[in-house]
Amino acid sequence: VQLQASGGGLVQAGGSLRLSCAASGSIFRLNVMGWYRQAPGKQRELVATITSTESTVYADSVKGRFTISRDNVKNTMYLQMNSLKPEVTAVYYCWSVVDSDDYWGQGTQVTVSS
Q: What is the predicted pLDDT for the residue at 44?
């Protein structure tokens, strides 16, 4: 399984970004996918997850502002981020698990300026 994240960038507070995560390899085995983020000096934390049946889980801090989705035809997962705040500045990683093995994308930087 290979995961390729994209879509990060620099945006002003209140703006929006959409991250994408393209999956390749043994993608038929992907059930749960998700996004994590890691800010400087902090531990990596869960942002949101989505199952193959599109059941979702969100961190409390992003509920109502972020939306996770997936397109199983395009083998791509998305994270729509709205009403962005400076405190969400971090490297965002896409993630999946197959047979108890974790797979990570390379990360994409999201920077929100005040």
A: 97
